[in-house]
Structures are given as structure tokens and as C-alpha cells.
Amino acid sequence: MVGRIFKSLVSQIIKVKDNNRQRSNALKIGTVIYEPTIVDGFDISVYYSKRVDSVLGKPAKGMYNDITCFVDAKAIRERPELVALSPNGPATRTNKAFSLPWDFVCPTNEEYQSNVLRFIEDTSKENVEGVILNLYHFPEEGFCTCDRCSRLQRESGLDWLDWRAQTVTDFIRRAKKMVKQPFGIEIWPDPVLAKERFGLDFEALAEYVDFFHVPLSSHNYVTMYWVDTLTRDFKKLLKKPIFIELSAEIAREVETKALLRTVAYVSSHDVEAVLLLVHDAERAKELCRTAVNDSNYRGWLEKFGFENMNKIIERWEKIY
Description:
By secondary structure, the chain is of the alpha/beta class. It folds into two domains: 125 residues, no CATH class; 176 residues, TIM Barrel (Alpha-Beta Barrel). 43% of the residues lie in helices and 15% in strands. It is built from twelve helices and ten strands. The radius of gyration is 20 Å and the shape is globular.
């Protein structure tokens, strides 16, 4: 069964490659990193300047700065009234009614909104390459039912789903005005229920962004057909260029080899960039050296015609 899926996937990828042979711009390769470091051999460098763990960094010049908007466990601990609410309780990791990975601030809290928008504006004033926003939406279905959100929804005259989507889109519209560099947003990788769950209206959001950043995170990509499927889905749905992010933190040999093959598959689609999430610059360099020195991998790329990935490795070979 696995063998048939693999052969089918390779066949489909080759067809996509042929269809995209005339692309005018070469695929970009990038890093998403927790330190303000630009790594040689990568076209795009993304730095978490405001993280989900409430750590604030200074704007990183020459890099895309990724800013977390409405996740802030520290602020919620200090001011519990900030948390988003639902009929089943607050949007916190300790609420076992949900499986939330973080603690979410209500996205209609005007004071917190203003602080986030100020941070976005201050970041844009620096010599940064671009700005990316993440977690700027509602935590999940059922949020937020605080008194303020309930009142705003009633006053809007919209139904629940449309009001939530309008609220998220309006925040992105306001943020866009603060940014003079390329501006993008991360989207939760649910191509079907994103509006119902998070208030994401892809078509409306596309009016205000230059690109979409889609994180397809996993501890390993030994099984990876789902990455190919979601990449195809989002390519059809989204009306702006797409950055696909893959997790590259795990340094074990099996995980690294599976990751590099997955990058090759994604590279055959008409996406703007593939981004690799790493903890530090050394891990990114290690990936480059592994790809350059793995003759089996390079032979596999050549055999199945992964031209974009081959070109990237040829660049890395001159550096590593």
C-alpha cells in the first residue's frame, strides 16, 4: 500500500513539475529561526521577534520579523480578564475541554490590540525585510463569547461566523497600514474549516497581504503525503504567493533524510518559497551540508527530476 502511494505521488509530482517548468521566478529557500541570524545560502530569513512564549525581541534588520498577536500566557496570568472565553471556559492550555497549544487573548480587546499594532508599527520602522503575523485570529470554534464580543456581534448585524471573519480581517487591514515592507500572515493549515474554527476568510484576507505563510509542522516527515496534499489544496485556495514552512529542528539522520525528500516534493509545486524551521543557525548549516554530501539523495533528485531542489543544492555546494 505504501509503495503504491509513493509511486503515485512521484508520478503526480513529475506532472506538476512539467506544468511548472515555465515559472519565471526560481523557488526560494528560507529559514524560520529563534535567533536574529541570517544564514548563508538562504534567500529568506524569518525571525520570531514576538514569540508565543511572550518573549519579545528587538526587530531583526534584514530579516522578516514574525510577530505573535493574540497568544500571551504571561499577560493572561497577570490580567486574567484578557483571556478569550467560550461556553466551555477560557482559551487556556489548562482547560481540558479543548486541546489548545497556547493561551489566547481575546482578539477584540482594544487595549491589547493597540499594543500589538504599536509593536507592528515600531518593527516596520526598522530596516526589516518584511513583517509576518501569526495567531491574529480566534482560538477555535466557540470563541469568543465575552460580553464585549457578544455585544459587538449583535451590533454588527452579522451572523456569528461572518462577524468573526470580519473581525479578523479588519485587524489584518489595520495592521497592513502599519507596514511598508512586504506583509504576510501565517494561516492555520486547515483548508476546509478555517473560517468556522478561526475566523479566517482566505479571499477577504488576500486583499491585504502580499503572501500567505503556511506552516506544515511535524516532528518527522517519514510519512509525508499529507504535506503534498495540503500544499496542493492551499495552492488552489489562496490567491497570493505561498510560503510553505516545514519543521527541521530534529537532527536525527532518519528525520533529516525524510525532511529533505519532503522539501524536494514541495519544491515541485508552484509555491514562492519553502521555509525550514530551525532553532539556530548551526542546524540550518548542518542541513545544507547533509544535502550536499548525500550522494544517494542527490541521485534520487536527479532521477526524478527535482530541478528546483537540485539548483538549491548546487548553490549550497559553493558555500558548504
